[in-house]
Structures are given as structure tokens and as C-alpha cells.
Structure of Outer membrane protein transport protein (OMPP1/FadL/TodX):
Amino acid sequence: MGNSPSTYGLLPGDIASAQALSIFNSQISAVYYNPANLAKDPRGELTGGIFHADHDLQANGSTIMDEPSQQLQLGLKTDLSQISTLEHPLYFGLMVGVEKFAQEMMAFSSETSDYGQYFTYGRQPLFLTAGAGTSVWRGIDVGFALRVTLNADATLNTRSTLGGVTSQESLNVSAAPKFRPILGVNINWGETFCSRANCWMDNLETAISYRAYSNTRTKVSSNVIVPGTIPAPGLNLAIKTLDSFQPEITTVGVKYDFGTWRLGVTGEYQAWSRLERELRDDTIKDQANANFKDIFIPRIGVEIPAGDHFTFTGGIAWEETPIEGKRSLDVNYLDADRWVVGLGMSAIIPKMPLLAYPVRMDLGYQYQQLDNKTYELTSTNPLTPPGVYGEVETDGEVHVFAASVTLKF
């Protein structure tokens, strides 16, 4: 169920703050976290970034997942009023992320496991989000975006010998986009209520965002005829499965600027219980009878400016596992509560050769430590003993590194 934006973060600032300050971030990742923030900065923006998530996820002390997640990211923001007849500024943003540094656009995995598999982590399919933000009144910005996922369908018809030699093959593959909405509102209370005089609300900012659930679905249908063994109309096989599920996420945050430092506190509600209904139509995981609960994630982030050109960022979060119970038949999902800690910095370079505007460079690091939780392994595989045939205890850690370069124009 790999889903990098909600598991790690997108840009270095999101990763460094453990996503605590993401709902206030005015960079292009705002198109995913809170599109209202696209209106914070009137300048256009071109951002390129990379991140590398290194996993060491264990069961009973043995590593069962160490494949990294690596993304190349590209983001663009511009004011549509400059290229249209609109008189009111409307800021458009687009962000794309591709797995394995742009070498793998359809990262997808769905399987059963006799030894246990981690639920949250995994490769992320193509990430694509586009949206717009604008100011509606003093200090009040609103935004709307769409996250795009792909539903893939494949149909195979063939004749085959018992030796596996096929003939008269027919293969059709298609992929259709699926759009899920993202909404955001940002309020600077000082600009709204103290526009004519200074007051304590000048440095107070609140935000709320909503991200609808999303997933990537694949459906495969096949028909095989084996002359003399399986006559027409043949043997029909059908698989329908999903990956990269993101629950409905509602985030509320408060940020205050104390002058020498800025503090942001956010609360995130994730509605994982919907996944139970989604898995009932999954032909690979429907027998698991896995139970999920909605969770609340508290996040705290801090920004400390150091002069005019440097800013240091830190954050911490406590993420509870959404899995209830200890068993998921055949699938054998593993997950655990975890601490998330981040640290990073940004630097603004005022003058660069051949460039008319400053350049921003960001670095971010995040560490995730999984707690211990015991799960029971069960399977319908005839090669495994009936009932509970083993127990595993989770443990592990994740290191995430990210860097980006942003050009303002």
C-alpha cells in the first residue's frame, strides 16, 4: 500500500517537519497538502526534487523488506491571470513524481504472503496532482486540486498446450484516470481582523484541508482454451486488486510566528475504516478479513530563521497503526505504531549566474522508528500447517533523504 506523500512527505520541507508544517507550506507541494497556499506567493515557481527512502523492516529480527523508494519530482506554479483575461490572480500548480528516479511509472504490487508483509511501505505509482488557489478576502485563501490515479485493465485470450505453448493470442491493455478532490482553506487572522492596526493576531495563521480517498486499481481478465483438456468456451480467470490506498484525510493546523522562531501544530484524521469495504472487492485480499480503524495523528513542527538566507526546520509526529487485530488470512499484513522525527534546512541564494531571480535549495532528513507488535500468521496454503502456524514481532526503521532546487520567476 505504498503512498509516499502521506507516508513520508513530498518536498524536503515536508519531510523535515514530519508533515507538521506541510499544511502551511507555500512551495509547490501545497497543491497536495493545501492548495490554498498556492496564493501565498505571487511569484511563479519551478521545482525539481528527489527523495530516497531506505527501509530496514523486520519480522522476528530478520529483515523482510529493504527495497528503497526513490522518486524524481517536478513541480510548476504560475499565475493564470497573466496568460488570460482574468483580472483576479488565480495560481495554478502541478506536481509530478515518478518512482525509481523516473524509470518506473507503474510501480504496483499486490500479493499474499506466508511470512508476513508490511502494510504501509512500498513503491509509489505515478504521483500526479494539479490544482489552483486564490485569495477571496483579506487574509483568506482557498484552493482546489485533483489527485490523479490510474485504473488499469488487461484482457488476454489465448489457446495453449499443456506445455505452455500459446497460439491465437489476443491482448488488450488500457488505463483510465481517476480524479480525487483536495480542498484547502488558509486564514491569516492578522490580515483579516487587524488590517488597520497591529494586534496579537498578526502572527497567527490557521488552515484546514481535506483529501479524498484514492487508490490504484488493476483488473486482469483472461480466457484460456487447452485443446483436448479445456474445450471452448475455455477457462476464465479474473483478478481485481488495488494498491497505494490513501484514506480520507482531514487536517487542521495552527501556526504562530514568535519572531525568532515559528511553531506549527497540526492534527490529522485518517479514515482507514473504508479500506475494509475496498478489500471486499479485491480478489487477492478479500479472504483476509482485515480490520482497520480510523486514526488521529498529532504533528508538531518548528522553523528557525538564521539570518536572511537560511531557515532550519524540525518536526515530530506519532503515527498509530490503523490495523486492528493480529491476523489477516493469507495476506498476513504487518504494521506498528511509529515515531517520526525530521530535520532540514533551506537556503536562498540571492544571485546566481544567468538567473534574474533568487534560487532556493532545500535539504531534508526523516527518521521513522517502528514499535514492536506481535502478529499471528495464518494461511490457506496446503503447504502450511492449519490455523495459526507462527507469530512474528515487528521492528525496524526508515531513513528518508530529500533535496530540491526551486527557481522563482
The mean pLDDT is 93.
